[in-house]
Structure formats: structure tokens, C-alpha cells
Design goal:
Blueprint: H1 4-37, E1 41-46, H2 52-64, E2 69-74, H3 82-90, E3 113-116, H4 119-124, E4 133-136, H5 149-184
Parallel strand pairs: 1-2, 1-3, 3-4
Helix pairs in contact: 2-5, 3-5
Length: 185
């Protein structure tokens, strides 16, 4: 039989333990809620970050609003190609304010998805140790297209449309993956 002091200690222990368990449950549910409410970060990676990755960034931002945090970078960044900006304006998207960035600026960030838009970017990409979803799209570089100005513009339009399709598929795939996660939880 417990004496009065032991009984008080036992009641105090149960009370503290209940508070700790409740706090843990609240912390766990808040962490789970925070994890599910955080926007996934996506990095589009290309060779120069002058055309393809900027186009992909523009499409993902426009088509999903604020569902994703989107960035783009290049292995060897160069200036935005005016033809890329022009063909995106034809699609109703202004990418003229997007600045090409070096992949070195992005290496320490945590991305949910890193998408190498071309073979060169995939081959020369640094390791993103915190990224679970690495993807590769082999999109031809429209900057290599020769010919008359209209032929070059047509090459850029073709790449723009291909990237739009791939971004649309990415959106559908991530939505399906999210739905699967929610049905499991």
C-alpha cells in the first residue's frame, strides 16, 4: 500500500507523463501538418540556364500558381536567350525577368525534385544529397538550330511545346503521388 507521499508522487508522475504524451502528439501532428503544407521545391537544371530550364520554370510557375517553389540553374550559366523570351510571350508567359543562375548557388539547398533538362546537365550535375526525386528529360538545345530566323524561332517553339508537355506530365505525376501518399496515411 502506498503512503501519502508515494501516492502524490505517483499522481504527479501520471500527470507529467500525460502532459508529455499530449505534447508529443501535438508536436508530431504539427510536424506532420508542417511537412504536408510545405511547398515542394523544384530545380530545373540545364547547361546554360538561358533557354530550356527558364522555359520549364516559367511553365511550372504559371501552370501551378504557388503549389511549388521553383528555381532553375545552369552548369555554365549564360544570358537569357531573347528567342526563348519571345516564344514564351507567344504562349502568354513572360520569362524576361528570370535571371540565369549557376548551379553552384543551388547545391546546398534542399529540393524535392531536381530535373536535368538535357544530357549535358545530367552528366555534369553535382550531387544533390538531400533530393529524393532526380529526373532527366532529354530536350534538344534550340540554340544549336541553324537556318533563317523563322526556322530558328520554329525550333524554339518546338522545344517550348515539348517542355510544356513534360511540365504538364510532371504536374500530373506529382499530383498522383500526393494523392497516393494521402490515401496511405
Amino acid at each position: 500500500m502506498l503512503n501519502g507521499t508515494a501516492l502524490l508522487h505517483a499522481k504527479y508522475y501520471r500527470m507529467v507523463r500525460t502532459i508529455q504524451i499530449n505534447d508529443f502528439d501535438q508536436d508530431e501532428s504539427m510536424t506532420r501538418a508542417k511537412m504536408t503544407s510545405q511547398k515542394p521545391k523544384v530545380l530545373f537544371l540545364s547547361t546554360g540556364n538561358a533557354t530550356r530550364s527558364l522555359i520549364a520554370e516559367g511553365f511550372l510557375r504559371t501552370l501551378t500558381g504557388d503549389r511549388f517553389e521553383v528555381a532553375s540553374a545552369g552548369v555554365e550559366p549564360s544570358a537569357l536567350n531573347p528567342l526563348a523570351s519571345e516564344v514564351m510571350k507567344e504562349a502568354g508567359i513572360d520569362i524576361s525577368g528570370q535571371e540565369p543562375k549557376s548551379v553552384a548557388q543551388s547545391v546546398k539547398e534542399r529540393f524535392g525534385y531536381v530535373i536535368a533538362i538535357c544530357d549535358t546537365a545530367k552528366e555534369r550535375s553535382p550531387i544533390f544529397p538531400f533530393t529524393l526525386h532526380l529526373q532527366h528529360w532529354s530536350v534538344v538545345d534550340p540554340n544549336t538550330a541553324g537556318g533563317l530566323p523563322e526556322q530558328r524561332a520554329e525550333a524554339f517553339r518546338h522545344v517550348r511545346d515539348e517542355i510544356k508537355d513534360k511540365v504538364g506530365q510532371f504536374i500530373a505525376d506529382t499530383a498522383q503521388a500526393k494523392a497516393n501518399e494521402l490515401s496511405i496515411a
